Amino acid sequence: MSERTIRISDEAAGKVLEAPVISGSEGDPTIDIAKLYKELGYFTYDPGYSVTASCSSDITFIDGAQGILRYRGYPIEQLAERSNFVEVAYLLLYGELPSATEFSEFERDITYHTMVHDQLNTFIKGFRYDAHPMAIMAGITSSLAGFYHDQMDIDDPEQRNLAAKRLIAKMPTIAAAAYRHHVGWPICYPRNSLNYCERFLDLMFSVPAEPYKVNPVAARALDLLFILHADHEQNASTSTVRLVGSTGANPYACVSAGISALWGPAHGGANEAVLRMLNEIGDVSQVGKYIDKAKDRDDPFRLMGFGHRVYKNYDPRAEIIRKACHDVLADLGVTDPLLDLAMKLEKIALEDDYFVQRKLYPNVDFYSGIIYKALGIPTSMFTVMFAIGRTVGWVSQWLEQSANPGRIGRPRQVYTGKQQRDYQAIDQRG
Ligand code: SDX
């Protein structure tokens, strides 16, 4: 933290505040405005928090101009190529890559927490068959608090750590149960002999009638996608988890809130919206029409999977996923015209001034659905897949905040409503 200050002066009132400048280990300098109201009597106004830091964190660094994403200092490109999701989970949770012993102990812990209380499966059966799986994910995750109420002392580091591992371990189990409820298959149980991604595919697609053989290409593709979705600093859903956590709420409630925030099409729900958009466009001959719709201020249509609050350069995750699309589809012997359409859409958009001037590039959601589709995962489950990966980021950020709890998050507002007026009896109103 540097001693540099920024002078904020209210000439009319003859008041000055020397606001400290905070410089982290990386990234842009930040003005500490904690004393602004006390010294000068002003709040700040920043709807959408475009230029507001809500916390300090050691976990993930993004440089939007350079298209940089690092987990605990490691570039996403290196982790995507050389690591695996469970190892990345350890890194995000604890700050360092594990030793071989630490990894096997952590992987074992995750494996042995994958089952859920069987009563939860009864809850899932209570949903309509056509309930959106994100509704099931949010509801069931929150209800986990009803099964671990005697192990939710958030002031106890051991219990915090156990809750984090339980959430990482159980998300795939709940997600697969939601899918199987939808397709009318019996819920199946996690197989400890499989690794995290193999186990998820088995939970999703195995049927009692015959043995299920996991395709290693599919498992590796999932592992890559979970790594890429694991964390992304203070995005909307992670900020939601932190805000709910700042009230002292239990981790299951926090992550359930994060799931609900992720569901929105402006956030994690975009991956599902991209596939629906590509299917609606249908053919490259229609791309121009939809590009024009996206540019039309009077048209609510947006190019889903394009644009980002932070990245004003290519989202490094989109770059990796686009390359993986070709490899995975080739390895699986799958062709998908939507991939060609997506690439043509990207090319045309990135040659159009509207997108170039606004620095709108494909984001993590633009290509991910192509791979999920090739793995046989239905569109309605795409955001659930995002939630499985992002649970690692949510619980990592929750652990970081819970270890040093600050004040409850409570933003202020600019009030634009009516000024004081007196009540009138109903027979006196106009
Ligand atoms: C994720 O924050 C994170 O880190 C999120 C995430 C993560 O890992 O957690 O990266 C995951 O949520 C990725 C984003 C997924 N959402 C989408 O793909 C939905 C489509 N994108 C947009 O809705 C939008 O780009 C956002 C929500 C992603 C970002 O919105 P901002 O930062 O508020 O940008 P903006 O709305 O102010 O847009 C700036 C301009 C506007 O035009 P003008 O007012 O200047 O004329 O760009 C335009 C917007 O209309 N614009 C788009 C557009 N995105 C922005 N126009 C057409 N299509 C788009 N997709």
Features:
mainly alpha; three-stranded antiparallel beta sheet; 18 helices; 6 strands; globular; binds s-citryldethia Coenzyme A
Protein architecture, described:
The relative contact order is 0.12. A three-stranded antiparallel beta sheet has the order 1-2-3. A three-stranded antiparallel beta sheet has the order 4-5-6. α9 (216-229) runs antiparallel to α17 (364-374), α11 (251-262) crosses α18 (382-403) and α14 runs parallel beside α17. β2 (15-22) and β3 form a beta hairpin. By secondary structure, the chain is mainly alpha-helical. It has helices at residues 36-40, 76-82, 85-94, 100-111, 118-125, 133-143, 157-183, 196-205, 216-229, 236-245, 251-262, 270-281, 287-295, 316-332, 337-350, 353-357, 364-374, 382-403, and strands at residues 5-10, 15-22, 30-31, 60-63, 68-71, 74-75. S-citryldethia Coenzyme A is lined by residues 48, 232, 235, 266-268, 270, 294, 302-310, 358, 360, 363-365. S-citryldethia Coenzyme A binds next to α17.
